[in-house]
Design a protein that fits this description.
Helix content: 25-40%
Distance between the termini: 27 Å
Order of helices and strands: HEHEEHHEHEEHEHEHHHHHEE
CATH architecture of the domain at 4-33 and 100-187: 2-Layer Sandwich
Strand content: 15-25%
CATH superfamily of the domain at 4-33 and 100-187: Reverse transcriptase/Diguanylate cyclase domain
CATH topology of the domain at 4-33 and 100-187: Alpha-Beta Plaits
Strand order of the largest sheet: 5-6-1-7-8
Radius of gyration: 20 Å
Shape: flat
Length: 291
């Protein structure tokens, strides 16, 4: 078993031959699967298995907030114009968002999570970070813990969630989206770069449509492509500070584990506006440094 000081810098460890390392900080990200659509199906089982779109009026200027997985097979995605969603799937059922009901269901889910893990950071109605400090010691333990939590949420609320887990928030968030729906993906310490490298660039928080298109025109397609970009090439493509920050995330240049109650210096959170249909966007805010 490694010394405690060494383990602090290693974070979440894999299970190898019964060896267990101390893990002072492990972060998980929970993302409720197709949350708005899932609440509608939970409350009206007749909607199960049908393409369901939650958002604005498809006859107007509304946009898609959430699409069920049945609707996503037609290429319908969040932030797409609702009219385009209807063209792609004329038989889809369109419902306007019921935010009071969604907030109540969200409170039920997070109450269950708080009963298991007292320290967490909810960053949206359907997602948040969970501090697994001293709750798990190995990657296998993290997987089992999160699978049990996933089952509890489903049993008590009828809603599904996906979980990602790692030594920092960036990795945990990307991992939660890697095996949806109902996924549990754990990235052991030391495996962050290999996990991130093949992921599409748009999976990296901070890369929106404009930046993504700019990088694509330069021939970059994956997080790994960005990670190996040299300084001169990076400066040609992106503003200095923004480019360095994105490449650091792509490389997982995180020297210390981060807990969910210590957000990154430049934290990215997904905010949804519901005035005209719904519109999802990434917003940037300043906060103490920690990835």
């Amino acid at each position: 078993m490694v010394g405690f000081t060494q383990a602090i810098h290693r974070g979440l460890t894999a299970d190898h031959g019964g060896s267990v390392d101390f893990v002072p900080r492990v972060v998980a990200h929970m993302d409720l699967d197709a949350f708005f659509a899932a609440v509608e199906v939970r409350d009206d089982p007749a909607l199960a298995g049908r393409p369901l779109v939650i958002g604005g009026d498809p006859a107007g200027r509304g946009v898609v907030s959430t699409a069920s997985y049945e609707a996503r097979r037609f290429g319908i995605r969040s932030a797409m114009p609702a009219a385009e969603a209807r063209r792609r799937c004329p038989e889809a059922i369109f419902l306007r968002p019921d935010m009071p009901r969604y907030r109540e269901r969200s409170r039920q889910v997070w109450s269950l999570v708080r009963a298991e893990v007292p320290v967490l950071e909810q960053v949206g109605i359907d997602e948040g970070y969970i501090d697994l400090y001293r709750a798990v010691w190995t990657s296998g333990g993290a997987r089992r813990f999160l699978a049990r939590l996933q089952q509890t949420v489903r049993k008590e609320t009828g809603l599904d969630a996906s979980f990602g887990c790692g030594t920092c928030k960036t990795v945990a968030k990307i991992a939660s989206d890697a095996d949806k729906p109902q996924g549990v993906v754990v990235v052991p310490a030391g495996g962050e770069a290999a996990f991130l490298a093949p992921r599409p660039l748009r999976a990296l928080p901070g890369i929106g449509p404009v930046t993504g298109e700019r990088l694509a025109r330069a021939g970059l397609a994956t997080i790994g492509d960005l990670a190996v970009l040299d300084d001169d090439a990076l400066a040609d493509l992106l503003p200095a500070a923004h480019g360095v920050e994105l490449r650091a995330r792509a490389c997982d240049w995180t020297t210390t584990p981060s807990g969910p109650c210590s957000p990154p210096r430049t934290a990215w959170s997904c905010v949804t506006a519901h005035a005209d249909g719904t519109r999802a966007r990434w917003t940037r805010r300043r906060a103490p440094r920690c990835r």
